[in-house]
C-alpha cells in the first residue's frame, strides 16, 4: 500500500469532520492532531503542549488537541502530505519544508548570517513580509497561523572547529534545502541530507562527521554524547511555521476558531519567549557533561566565517527570488544594492 493511499484512508475521519454539520460538531469535540518531529522538552514541543492546554481551556472542551512528538505519526518527509490530505490537522515544520511545495521564498530563512539577532528576525516574522510568506501557502491547501522560534545554529563535529578551513572535507548533516547545501559547500564541507530522527545514529556510526543545530535540539537529541567539538557561530536560524489544513480550519465555527486563534497567539508568545532560555540552559547542561567542547570564535575567525558564507546570498538570490531578498534586507536593515 502506497503512502498516499494510507494517508487517504487515514484522512477519511478528518474529511468527514470538516464536512460535518454544526449540530454534529456540537455533540463531540473537534479533534486537532498536532504532529511534529522533535521532543516535548524543546521550545517547539513545549509550545505545542501549551497550545493544547489553552485551546482546550478556551473552547471549554469543544476542541481536543492531540500532540504527537518525535515523528510518532509520520516521518518529517511524510508529514506535509499528511496535512494536505487531512490525516493530521496541524504541523510545525521547519521553514525550508515549503520549498518542495513550490514556495521557495521560505528558504530566505536559511540564508546564513542574515539575522544578527532575534530583534532583526522579528522585523520579518512579525511584519508584513512574514504574513505575505504565509499567505503564499493558501493555494497549497495550507493556512499558516504562526511563526515559532528555535534560535540560532552552531556547528559541531568530532574535530576542533575554529574557522571555515577546519570544515574542509567534513560530511555535515543538513535539512533538505538548496540554500543549506550551498552554505555547507561554501565552507568546503560536504552536505548530507538526513531526517532529524536519524541524526544521532548517523553521528554515532560516522555516517556523517558533524551537523548544525540549535543547542536545545542538540541536547534533547543527545548529540553532545557523539560529538566532541562545537563552534559558537550562530550562523543560521531555525524556525517553524505552525500550519493547519485549510479546509479543516475554515470549517470550524467562527466563534470556536476565534478561541483557537487566541490560544495560538498566547502559545506563540510563550514558545518564542522560552527559546532563548531553553538554548542557554541546554548549552550549560552540555558543558557540564564535559563530553563536548564549545569554542567561541575570535573576531578574525568570525569575519572568515562571514566572508565564506555571505557568498551564498548572491548565489541563491535567483532561487528564492530577488524580491523577497530585497524585502527581508530592507526589514532587517541590510543594504539592498
What can you tell me about this protein's structure?
With 337 residues, this protein is α/β, with parallel strands linked by helices. The protein is built from 15 helices and 9 strands. It has helices at residues 3-10, 12-18, 22-27, 43-58, 79-85, 118-125, 128-135, 178-186, 199-205, 215-220, 246-250, 254-289, 299-309, 311-320, 322-332; strands spanning 30-35, 63-68, 90-91, 142-157, 171-174, 190-193, 210-213, 229-245, 293-295. Strands 1, 2, 3, 4, 5, 6, 7, 8 and 9 form a 9-stranded mixed sheet that branches. Strand 5, helix 8 (178-186) and strand 6 (190-193) form a beta-alpha-beta unit. The N and C termini lie far apart (53 Å).
Structural class: alpha/beta
- What oligomeric state do the depicted chains represent? single chain
Strand residue percentage: 15-25%
The total beta strand count reads 9
Give the N-to-C terminal Cα separation: 53 Å
Summary keywords:
single chain, 337 residues, alpha/beta, D-Maltodextrin-Binding Protein, domain 2, 9 strands, 46% helix, 18% strand, globular
Topology:
Elements: H1 3-10, H2 12-18, H3 22-27, E1 30-35, H4 43-58, E2 63-68, H5 79-85, E3 90-91, H6 118-125, H7 128-135, E4 142-157, E5 171-174, H8 178-186, E6 190-193, H9 199-205, E7 210-213, H10 215-220, E8 229-245, H11 246-250, H12 254-289, E9 293-295, H13 299-309, H14 311-320, H15 322-332
Parallel strand pairs: 1-2, 1-3, 5-6, 5-7, 8-9
Antiparallel strand pairs: 3-8, 4-7, 4-8
Helix pairs in contact: 4-12, 8-14
Amino acid at each position: 500500500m502506497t503512502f498516499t493511499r494510507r494517508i487517504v484512508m487515514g484522512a477519511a475521519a478528518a474529511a468527514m469532520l470538516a464536512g460535518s454539520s454544526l449540530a454534529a460538531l456540537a455533540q463531540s469535540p473537534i479533534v486537532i492532531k498536532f504532529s511534529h518531529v522533535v521532543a516535548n522538552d524543546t521550545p517547539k514541543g513545549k509550545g505545542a503542549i501549551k497550545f493544547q492546554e489553552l485551546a482546550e481551556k478556551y473552547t471549554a472542551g469543544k476542541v481536543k488537541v492531540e500532540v504527537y512528538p518525535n515523528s510518532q505519526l509520520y516521518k518529517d518527509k511524510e508529514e506535509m502530505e499528511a496535512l494536505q490530505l487531512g490525516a493530521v490537522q496541524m504541523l510545525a515544520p521547519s521553514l525550508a519544508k515549503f520549498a518542495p511545495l513550490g514556495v521557495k521564498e521560505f528558504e530566505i530563512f536559511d540564508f546564513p548570517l542574515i539575522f544578527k539577532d532575534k530583534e532583526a528576525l522579528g522585523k520579518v516574522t512579525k511584519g508584513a513580509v512574514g504574513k505575505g510568506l504565509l499567505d503564499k501557502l493558501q493555494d497549497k491547501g495550507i493556512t499558516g497561523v504562526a511563526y515559532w522560534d528555535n534560535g540560532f545554529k552552531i556547528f559541531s563535529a568530532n574535530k576542533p572547529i575554529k574557522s571555515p578551513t577546519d570544515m574542509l572535507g567534513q560530511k555535515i548533516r543538513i535539512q533538505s534545502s538548496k540554500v543549506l547545501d550551498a552554505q555547507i559547500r561554501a565552507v568546503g564541507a560536504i552536505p548530507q541530507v538526513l531526517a532529524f530522527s536519524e541524526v544521532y545514529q548517523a553521528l554515532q556510526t560516522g555516517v556523517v562527521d558533524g551537523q548544525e543545530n540549535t543547542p536545545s535540539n542538540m541536547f534533547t537529541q543527545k548529540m553532545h554524547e557523539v560529538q566532541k567539538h562545537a563552534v559558537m557561530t550562530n550562523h543560521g536560524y531555525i524556525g517553524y511555521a505552525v500550519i493547519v489544513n485549510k479546509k479543516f480550519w475554515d470549517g470550524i465555527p467562527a466563534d470556536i476558531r476565534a478561541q483557537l486563534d487566541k490560544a495560538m497567539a498566547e502559545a506563540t508568545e510563550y514558545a518564542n519567549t522560552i527559546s532563548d532560555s531553553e538554548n542557554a540552559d541546554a548549552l550549560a547542561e552540555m558543558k557540564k557533561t564535559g563530553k563536548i567542547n564549545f569554542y567561541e570564535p575570535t573576531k578574525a575567525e568570525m569575519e572568515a566565517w562571514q566572508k565564506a558564507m555571505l557568498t551564498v546570498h548572491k548565489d541563491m538570490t535567483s532561487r528564492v527570488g530577488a524580491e523577497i531578498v530585497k524585502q527581508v534586507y530592507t526589514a532587517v536593515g541590510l543594504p539592498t544594492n
